[in-house]
Structures are given as C-alpha cells and as structure tokens.
C-alpha cells in the first residue's frame, strides 16, 4: 500500500440484521485504516445512526477484544427514512459534513442498496457482504453464514436426540429469508430426512408421503428442516401429525442463529474483507462491493453486484436427499 494515498477520514457502519463476524469486520477496517494514518468515524446503529448523528471516533484500541464477540459493537438498526429520497439526501449531506472520504458499509441486500443510493449522491462507498442468509449472489460467501450453520447444526443435533427417543417427527424452521442455503446446509449437517427450500417446489403432501414411506421401512423418527421462506414449521407439523398420526413437534430456531461467537471461518473472511475494503479506498476504487469468488477475494461495482443473478445449484440438495434414505 502507498503511504501517500490521499485518504484522510473514513466512516464504518454495520447495518440491517446482525451477523457473527461483524465485529471482526469493524476491527479489520479500523486497524487497517489506523496503520495507514487514516482517521475513522464509527457510525452507530447503521443508517439510522448516520441520520441522527450517532457517531464516535475510533482508533486501534477501540476495537480491542472484539474479534471473538458476536453481534456488533457499533449496534445496528433498520431505517425506513433511508428508503426515501429525502432521507438519502440527508445521509449524503451528513457524510459530506463529516468530511468522509469514503464510507464502509457491512450488511446484506438492503444495506448494500442504501450504499448504492449514497454513491449516486456523490458519497464514496465500499460494501462488505455480511448476512447469515448467504443471499447476495455476487459473492460466494457472506459473513456470518458459517457461524449460523454451526449454531443451527448444534440445535438440530439435540432436537434429533429427543425426536429419536420419542419416535417423533421434528420440523425445524431456520432463517434465510427467501434463500434456502442456510436450510440446505443445516439439513446436510444435521442429517435431516427432508428439507424444504424456496428455490425448489416441494409440496406438503410430498413431505408427508416420504415420512409415511420412511415409517414403513422401519425408520422410527424423522427430521424435516424448513426454510422460513417456504413453509411455517407450526402449520406443517400440525398437518403431518393430523395426516399420519405420528407425534410431530415444531421448533423455530429464529434469532438464536444470529448470536454467539463467530466461527474461525467467519473471523478470517471478515478480517480479509475488512482489509480489502480499506485497500480499495486507498486505491481510489470507490462504489464497490468486496466479494469472495472462486476461492479469491475480489470486488465489483455495487450496482453490478446487486444485479447478479441468483443461481441455485441443486446438486447439494439431491445429495442430501440421497444420504437421507
């Protein structure tokens, strides 16, 4: 990196839903900036904090002992005002008032769209994909996904134990919005007999038929993982019990999946992406999203990244179904 980069002050924020590894992102951004004599403003509560002026000075000591912590030290929120032209203009003016040469935004789809809006108003932005949903098609990985899978896997393993003991069927609902990757990975690692994903049309009747077939083959318990964007666990569990007579219990993991210490994988990806974000800023490559693609860190224009097509590879689904026989 060049010492004469001409960047004096940047801002960093975490926005939208929290994800394990966000603190590692903040740490990497702040310390990379400090190592290159760049002043850092920490913007609390995402775009909501930017609009309300909830901003702090940060230095290398500010981010001590946070890499292992879940959540985000800068806090996060969702901002309805940022969805309006007036709110976006106000946010851009605040960035200019603060003298920010660039703004680093860590978050998911909505946060990235907010950064795009600011970039169109003249604010230099760089985004880092941080969401447990793995639903930003431009990047093969989003910060928080691995931690969420591990948390859900541990819960599903314990649910399977009691389901087996009572010869029940268990329906476990996991997060993921309109993306099924989290559910698919949870099903694979938890040894589920079935998984329902938004990307694939599987009817409730088909799931029930498989449960009946499994029982006929001597399988005394079944575990079904459901993506929240597909079915609701409570309704599905009731229908399974009504149609089969098999005692069925729903479990909704919910926000449990967002909490806890980030995994090693998330800490490494977060640290590398935070570094890459500041590097892009120092190279005057603005309005980019840092991505992990084909095993390497790269970047693309924010607008291009948001337009990337969501291509679901169903190979893993078919393997999970085969292994569940």
Task: Characterise the protein shown here.
The protein is an alpha/beta fold and 325 residues long. The chain contains eleven helices and eleven strands. Helix 7 crosses helix 8. The chain is elongated. The model has no long low-confidence stretch (mean pLDDT 95).
Structure summary:
The protein has 325 residues and is an alpha/beta fold. Helices cover 42% and strands 18% of the residues. The strands form 2 sheets. It has a 7-stranded mixed beta sheet, with helices on both faces. It has a 4-stranded parallel beta sheet with strand order 7-8-6-9, with helices on both faces.
Beta-strand percentage?
Answer: 15-25%
Order of helices and strands: EHEHEHEHEHEHEHEHEHEEHH
Q: State the share of residues found in helices, binned by percent.
A: 40-55%
Whole-angstrom Rg: 22 Å
- Total helical segments: 11
Low-confidence stretches are none
Shape: elongated
Gap from first CA to last CA: 54 Å
Q: Quick check: average pLDDT? A: 95
Q: Count all strands and give the number.
A: 11
Reported for the largest beta sheet, the result is: 7 strands, mixed
* Global structural class: alpha/beta
Strand order of the largest sheet: 3-2-1-4-5-10-11
Descriptors:
7-stranded mixed sheet; 11 helices; 18% strand; elongated
Write the layout of secondary structure elements.
Layout: E1 9-14, H1 22-35, E2 39-43, H2 46-52, E3 55-58, H3 85-98, E4 102-107, H4 109-120, E5 125-129, H5 145-165, E6 169-174, H6 181-190, E7 194-196, H7 204-216, E8 222-227, H8 233-244, E9 248-252, H9 264-282, E10 288-293, E11 296-301, H10 302-307, H11 315-323
Helix pairs in contact: 1-9, 5-6, 7-8
């Amino acid at each position: 990196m060049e010492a004469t980069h001409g960047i004096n002050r940047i801002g960093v924020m975490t926005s939208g839903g929290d994800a394990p590894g966000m603190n590692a992102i903040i740490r990497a951004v702040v310390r990379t900036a400090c190592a290159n004599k760049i002043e850092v403003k920490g913007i609390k509560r995402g775009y909501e904090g930017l609009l309300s002026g909830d901003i702090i000075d940060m230095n290398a000591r500010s981010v001590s002992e946070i890499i292992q912590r879940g959540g985000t030290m800068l806090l996060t929120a969702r901002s309805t005002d940022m969805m309006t032209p007036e709110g976006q203009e106000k946010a851009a003016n605040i960035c200019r008032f603060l003298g920010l040469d660039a703004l680093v935004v860590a978050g998911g789809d909505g946060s990235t769209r907010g950064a795009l809006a600011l970039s169109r108003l003249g604010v230099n932005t760089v985004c880092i994909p941080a969401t447990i949903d793995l639903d930003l098609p431009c990047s093969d990985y989003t910060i928080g996904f691995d931690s969420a899978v591990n948390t859900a896997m541990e819960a599903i393993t314990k649910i399977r134990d009691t389901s087996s003991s009572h010869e029940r069927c268990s329906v476990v609902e996991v997060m993921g919005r309109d993306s099924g990757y989290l559910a698919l990975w949870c099903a694979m690692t938890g040894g589920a007999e079935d998984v329902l994903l938004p990307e694939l049309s599987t009817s409730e009747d088909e799931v029930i038929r498989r449960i009946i077939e499994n029982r006929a083959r001597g399988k005394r318990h079944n575990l079904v993982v459901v993506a929240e964007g597909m079915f609701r666990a409570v309704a599905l569990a009731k229908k399974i019990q009504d149609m089969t007579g098999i005692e069925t219990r729903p479990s909704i993991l919910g926000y449990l999946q967002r909490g806890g210490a980030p995994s090693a994988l998330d800490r490494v990806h977060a640290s590398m992406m935070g570094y890459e974000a500041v590097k892009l800023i120092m190279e005057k490559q603005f309005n980019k999203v840092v991505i992990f693609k084909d095993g390497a860190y790269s970047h693309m224009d924010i607008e291009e990244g948001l337009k990337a097509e969501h291509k679901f590879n169903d190979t893993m689904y078919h393997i999970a179904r085969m292994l569940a026989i």
